[in-house]
Structures are given as C-alpha cells and as structure tokens.
C-alpha cells in the first residue's frame, strides 16, 4: 500500500469506528477468526492421524502446511466475508486485516524455511515465536502507517561513543543487518562443510578443521561487513574488543585453552573419529570432536563429554591409533593335580571356537605362576574389533572353559585353609569341669 492509500484507509476506518455499523465488521472478523481456528484444528487432526498411520509421509511439506493453515484459512474467510458484507456496509477493517494475515503467513513460512536451512541452530527454534512476533509487528506498523513515526522517535534517542554518534534506530538496523548477514554466512558455511565432508582423500580431522575455520571466518566477515553498512564505525568498538581480550586472559582462559586444544587435536590427528580411547576413568569410542570438547560413547551407551584440554594434558590410551587389534588376557587357575597340557589345550580350543578371535596371531595358553591354592594359567588372544566390547567374548570363553573343565574332571580350586591344633586340649564335662 502507498502512504496516501494508507492514510485514506485509516481515516475511513476511524469514521467506521464512530458508526454503529462497526459492530458488524468486528463481529464478522471475529467469526472468521474463530472458524479459521476450528478448521485449523480439524486439519491438524487429520494430518496427525495420517502421520501416525504412515510415518514416512511426515516431512518438511507437512510441517510448513501446519504453520500456515490458520493465517491462510483466516485470509480466505476474511476475503469472502469482505465481498459478502461489502454489499451492505463498509469493510475498511477487512481491508486492513487482509495484508496483516498475508504477512503472518509469509513470516511463518520464512521462519520455517530458516529452520529447514539451519537444522542444527537450536537458538532459532527457541526464539522462533519472538522473531515471528517482532517481524509481524513491524509489518503491521508499516501497513497502518505508524512505522515512520516510530523510526523518528528511535532516531531521537542516541548517545556518543568516541567520535561516533549512535542512536537506537541505528542499533536496531545494525542488529537486523548482522543477523541477516550471519544467517547467510551460516548457510554458506553449511554448504561448504557438506562439500568438504564429501571430499574423498581428505582426512576426517582436516575436514572438520577446514569446516570450523571457514565458519569462523565467514561469521567474522559478516559482522565486519554488516556494521559499516548501517553507519557504525568499527573503531568505536575497539574499547569493547580490549575488554573482551582482558576477559579471555583472566576469566575465560579455561574456555580459550579448550578451544586451542580442540584445534590441536584436529590438526595433529592423534585422536580421530571412531577411535577407542581411555582417559582417566573414561573409556569409549570417539563419536564427536568439537572445538571445546570431545564426546566418548562408552560400551554401556553412556556418552562422556571430555574437555579438549584434558585430552591434551593427560595420558590417553588410544587402542585404535595405528592398529585396531588388541590383545586380551584371561587368567584361570587350576589345581596342582591337573594335567596342565590338557588344560592348556582346552583353553586354546575355547578361544579358537569364538569367531571374533583372530587366527593370526593365534591364541596361546601359558603357565603364569604357582600360587597358594593352585597353578595360575593365562589365555591370551587377539581381536580386531575392540569397539564392540570385550565383556561378551570374555564371558563366552569362560563359560566354554568351565564346561570343558567340568567334563574332563579338571578342578578350578578355591582358597582353602588347614587349621591344626597343637598340644593337649582340656575338655569340660559334667563330672570333670575345667577349672
């Protein structure tokens, strides 16, 4: 709408408000909104039942439809009501409602498109209602012609930073411009990251390094380009940069150290995705490496978040650094009366019967020590998939050894103690009590 048309519409609407006939417009508009709400509820119920019956049908198209059902339905009803009611009354209120409902539908579709473009941006989902409401208010103010007056009022409220004069309107413009440019930068970074991840012949750690660096550079470039566009001099922000540097040096040194350690881990490739590592009491497969922390997924499914600084400053056991094969030893004790050659043969056969045990190097049994209660034997074997866990294969071999020992009459001893009483012991009886 042009400014003259807006002014005329507002004047006509003000005249309608002073007439009793405005009740018909308000009532008809309210009825349209209530009917749109009921129709929206019914359509969403149909979509929900359709999705429950066939989950594969759920997708971005259905989600987008759910977002615009209400404004589009209300818009259609308002247009029909305006045509019908226009034969008897003025419909200036409907003329104002049509662009507002259209703007609501467009804003909801825009936010939905942003969420689809940035699926990992959790902040976008959290502030979705705020963004949509703010954008709709701005559109509404523009439609009714009040936005220029609001802008003039914001320009009157300002302050001076150094030699630069900044007002609230300039700050709002800068925030909006920075947000738009950062969204574009994040989209470009996402496209570049997907290309890098599909690049063959490039190490996975280097792919992550290049993706993180490109994202950081694009975000910095977006800020440095967007602020001067609205007239904000970057030199005026130098004092804030200095304060940020002091904060990083004092209070945020741990966080900064973790970020630096993250890039070191990605560059030196000592820890990679899929490695089975142990650090301190934590052991698991590396499932994610970020610039601040590394995620280890344990054999129980529990994920441990380890700061990168810990991985740099501690001894890390990487079981799959250069070779994924690991050796497992099982201690087993037999009695002194056991045929050791037969027992060791059973141990080796029990290991050979497990498909996860490697044939080369072959499993072997050894006499480890002569203990108090029996002879300590050790079964050693190699597996190539430690990430699958070792408890299962240990249990299977121990169970088979126990069955074979039981069938062959081989005893697995338990601690025994002999108690000998030396000297005469006085026995107390009725006729001869002990004094």
Order of helices and strands: HHHHHHHEEHHHHEEEEHEEHEEH
Report the major sheet: 5 strands, antiparallel
Low-confidence stretches are: 1-5
The helix-and-strand class reads alpha+beta
Helix content: 55-70%
Rounded average pLDDT: 75
| Portion in strands | 5-15%
Please give the number of β-strands. 10
* Global outline: elongated
Concise account of the structure shown:
The chain is an alpha+beta fold and 435 residues long.
Can you tell me about this structure?
With 435 residues, the chain is of the alpha+beta class. It has helices at 3-17, 22-53, 60-85, 92-117, 122-126, 128-144, 147-156, 168-197, 204-229, 238-250, 253-268, 308-313, 340-352, 391-408; strands spanning 158-161, 164-167, 276-279, 282-289, 293-297, 303-307, 316-318, 326-334, 364-370, 375-383. The chain is built from 14 helices and ten strands. The strands form three sheets. A five-stranded antiparallel sheet has the order 6-5-4-3-7. A three-stranded antiparallel sheet has the order 8-10-9, with helices on one face. A hairpin with a 2-residue loop joins strand 3 and strand 4 (282-289). It is elongated and about 120 Å long. The termini are far apart.
Indicate the topology.
Layout: H1 3-17, H2 22-53, H3 60-85, H4 92-117, H5 122-126, H6 128-144, H7 147-156, E1 158-161, E2 164-167, H8 168-197, H9 204-229, H10 238-250, H11 253-268, E3 276-279, E4 282-289, E5 293-297, E6 303-307, H12 308-313, E7 316-318, E8 326-334, H13 340-352, E9 364-370, E10 375-383, H14 391-408
Antiparallel strand pairs: 1-2, 3-4, 3-7, 4-5, 5-6, 8-10, 9-10
Helix pairs in contact: 1-4, 2-3, 3-4, 4-6, 8-9, 9-11, 13-14
